[in-house]
Design a protein that fits this description.
Layout (H helix, E strand, L loop, with lengths): L1 H20 L1 H7 L5 H7 L4 H29 L1 H20 L4 H29 L2 H33 L2 H21 L14 H12 L2 H31 L4 H29 L1 H24 L5 H12 L1 H15 L4 H25 L6 H22 L6
Length: 399
């Protein structure tokens, strides 16, 4: 009887952890189909609305640098609770925004606070589960983080169609409140007071500086960063291209997004099967090759006027490589710097989302409303991603 209760409790905890991990994917993907409606409602240009997405990721990138050290010093639960509560408040303020400037500012702070869940979730899992349970738990959380962006645009499209775009932010707030309740009642504090570390800003900054001054580390970080930036280019302008340029119904946009996630799941499965056989560097090079082909195809699709599917198929290929490139580049990076794995993870996450924010903002600012800015940006990101690995990090393959 006791074993059964423990098993049920463990499953419930895993579900809650998955819900915590889903906060940022939902915040990023759920309102994509409503971007054209937001532009009309707030009398804003498409580029201004697209900037709200980069605003979120910019805040998210910066937040990752702070929440990890805070959680190591003050405990996991209080930092997670405060971050999620502030995330919910920002969602409410987003729903009540009356102009695009307010919404952009709210999204910056929502990204900053949402980073708490993304950073602390891995520490919680490490603290709560033994070695045998860790892999199973993280697999479930990864699955949730994959399903969330699959379901989010579909749900967001229908919410926007039925209740208006503001309902998406109210839904985010409600979901965050449910997560807060689950954290309060079901998630224990997993870091005892005697294991907490005092904040040492100087040593943290020195570790960041060491990584940034090492060519191989920069190679892996920006290899992943530009790969993510290419995908983020699509997330920034894709809704306008599909809905306004190719006249896809907002409630159907999510189905096209789901094709990307299906491809992502397929490539992730291939990576899981092959990486032990051929190694992380070989899988990373395979992912970079597929990404380069995808970047070339989306440009050729525009050059030859192949229409909607000339965009959909290469975007599917590009998004499918994200997990292969991201996971293998991170594995190579952490394998090279095991003594500062936490610092390396925080820095890589910050640069990944920071690069995505910068590239996304540049694309959103372009006056050309055709597919060309997105196509050229994704192709350029594919080239830069491969170049950073090839010229700075490839030599570590022999180590």
């Amino acid at each position: 009887m006791t074993d059964q209760k423990t098993s049920q409790l463990s499953f419930l905890l895993i579900v809650i952890l998955g819900a915590i991990a889903a906060l940022t994917p939902l915040a990023i993907d759920m309102y994509l189909p409503a971007m054209p409606d937001i532009a009309k409602a707030l009398l804003a240009s498409p580029s201004a609305v697209q900037t709200t997405l980069t605003a979120y990721t910019a805040g998210f990138a910066i937040g990752q640098l702070f929440h990890g050290p805070l959680a190591d010093s003050y405990g996991r639960k209080p930092v997670l609770l405060i971050g999620t509560l502030c995330f919910a408040i920002m969602a409410v303020l987003g729903a009540m925004s009356t102009d695009i400037g307010q919404l952009t500012l709210v999204r910056v702070f929502q990204g900053f606070t949402g980073a708490a869940a993304a950073v602390i979730i891995q520490a919680l899992v490490r603290d709560m589960f033994d070695r045998e349970e860790f892999a199973r738990t993280m697999s479930f959380i990864t699955l949730v983080m994959t399903i969330a962006p699959l379901a989010a645009p579909i749900a967001g499209g229908y919410l926007a169609a039925w209740f208006g775009w503001r309902s998406i932010f109210w839904a985010l707030a409600i979901f965050a409140v449910i997560v807060i309740a689950a954290i309060v009642y079901k998630i224990p504090e997993t870091l005892s007071k005697e294991k907490r570390l005092p904040l040492h800003l100087g040593s943290t900054l020195r570790n960041y500086a060491k990584l940034l001054s090492t060519p191989a580390a920069l190679g892996f970080v920006f290899c992943s960063g530009f790969s993510f930036a290419g995908m983020f280019t699509f997330l920034t302008v894709g809704a306008f291209i599909y809905i306004d340029h190719y006249h896809v119904a907002p409630e159907h946009f999510g189905y096209f997004m789901s094709l990307n996630i299906v491809c992502l799941i397929l490539m992730t499965s291939i990576n899981g099967r092959w990486v032990r056989k051929i190694g992380t560097h070989s899988m990373l090079k395979l992912g970079l090759l597929v990404q380069l082909v995808a970047g070339g195809l989306i440009v050729l699709g525009q050059f030859f006027g192949l229409g909607l599917w000339g965009v959909v198929v290469p975007v599917m290929m590009f998004v499918g490589t994200i997990s292969v490139i991201g996971s293998n580049s991170m594995a190579c990076l952490l394998g090279k710097y095991p003594q500062m794995a936490g610092t390396a993870s925080s820095l890589a996450g910050t640069i990944r989302f920071g690069t995505g924010s910068v590239v996304g903002t540049l694309v959103a600012m372009m006056p050309d409303r055709t597919v060309w800015p997105m196509a050229l940006s994704m192709a350029a990101c594919a080239v830069l991603s491969a170049a950073f690995y090839w010229f700075l990090a490839r030599e570590t393959e022999e180590e």
